[in-house]
C-alpha cells in the first residue's frame, strides 16, 4: 500500500520533470521565433546560439539553481547543495518538497 507521503514525493518528482520538459520546449519556441524574425542566412547562427544558451543555462542551474531549489535551508530557498555531486542529484527523487508533508491532512 502506498502511503500519502510517498505519493506526494512521486507527484512532486513528476511535476519537476514535466516543468523541465516545458522549459526545453520553450527554448525551442524561442529558436523558432528568432529564426522567423531574421534573414534565412542567419537561421543557423540563431539555432546555434539557442543551443549554446541552453547549455550554459543548464550548467548555471547545476551550479546554483539546484542548491536553491533542493538544498537544505530556510523556508524560501536552500543554502546548501551548490555544485551537487551525482549522489546528491539522485537523492532528490527520494524527498523533494518535504514541505508538502507539513500540510495538515497530507501526511500518511
Could you explain how this protein is built, in words?
- By secondary structure, the chain is an all-alpha fold.
- Helices cover 61% and strands 0% of the residues.
- It contains three helices and no strands.
Task: List the keywords.
single chain, 108 residues, mainly alpha, 3 helices, 0% strand, elongated
> How does the helix and strand content classify structurally?
mainly alpha
Q: How helix-rich are the residues, as a percent range?
A: 55-70%
* Shape category: elongated
Instruction: Give the radius of gyration.
Output: 18 Å
Q: What percent of residues are in strands? A: under 5%
Describe the largest sheet. none
The termini sit apart by: 11 Å
- The average pLDDT score comes to 78
The number of distinct β-strands equals 0
Number of helices: 3
H-E order: HHH
- Contiguous low-pLDDT stretches (5 residues minimum) are none
SSE layout and pairings?
Blueprint: H1 4-36, H2 43-70, H3 86-90
Helix pairs in contact: 1-2
Task: Briefly characterize the structure.
The chain has 108 residues and is mainly α. It is 61% helix and 0% strand. Helix 1 (4-36) packs antiparallel against helix 2.
